[in-house]
Amino acid sequence: MAAAQMTTAASSRGFLPPFEGLRPVTLKVSSLSFRTSGGLTLRSTRGLVVKAATTVAPKYTTLKPLGDRVLVKISAAEEKTSGGILLPSTAQSKPQGGEVVAVGEGRNVGQHKVDVSVKTGTQVVYSKYAGTEVEFNGSNHLLLKEDDIVGILETDDVKDLKPLNDRILIKVMEAEETTAGGLLLTQGSKEKPSTGTVIAVGPGPLDEDGSRKGLTVSEGNTVLYSKFAGNDFKGNDGSDYIVLRASDIMAVLG
After folding, report:
1. Which residues pair with 44 in a beta bridge?
2. Minimal CA–CA distance to 214: which of 224, 205, 227, 226?
3. Residue 224: helix, strand or coil by DSSP?
4. Quick one: DSSP state of residue 246?
5. CA pair distance 1, 142, nearest whole angstrom
6. Three-state DSSP class for 34?
7. Predicted confidence (pLDDT) per residue in 163-202, tens digit
8. Could you tell me which of 156, 98, 89 has the C-alpha nearest to residue 124?
9. In sequence order, what E strands does 123-217 have?
10. 41: number of CA atoms within 13 Å, CB side?
11. With a threshold of 0.90, does the pTM exceed it?
């Protein structure tokens, strides 16, 4: 019988050194190739379970943010829907908010030193893919730049968000329910709106003198914005909201 050899990475436990800070996870491989001693390649399409490893967030006893970085304790993910249905861990949405527990000393803008604009104890909302997640004091935290924080939220409703810097909070206009010919559109076929009403605006970005430069849009304006910009949120009333930068606003509609 010809000897077979795996052409993928070796899976023998004896050849792999231990790695600190790694935990095993299960991966499913759909196909696998074997090479015989005679040079013939055989391919198996049966599912194969392989043990891999993923990094675990390192644990720290002290953590001091530097510059304009902020340490945020991440809020717990929702475990139930608004109707009380228990969600499995895979269906729980990743939180985008938490409490500021430490801030850096600020940054230099031109010849001026500018402090971080959020204080410890503040409840904030941040960009979805921002920062570096770390485990600190037994809880998950996010270490991010001040500019990754989109606003301050002191309630549980996004309509009360206070945008920071050049961010703008917009209530998205509802998508068309029917076509021009009167056909009812399904949820999946509705085109994502790119217009909405400005609910709140930030104080504006910093100029070279460290002063705030006001934004050109105001509360109540109806605006047209870039289609794939910003961070989407759902209000307690079921309305859709989006927080984006002033540069993502393309026009004010009259």
Report:
1. 32
2. 205
3. strand
4. G
5. 56
6. strand
7. 999 999 999 987 654 445 555 544 454 456 689 999 999 9
8. 98
9. 123-126, 132-136, 139-145, 149-152, 162-163, 167-172, 195-201
10. 6
11. no
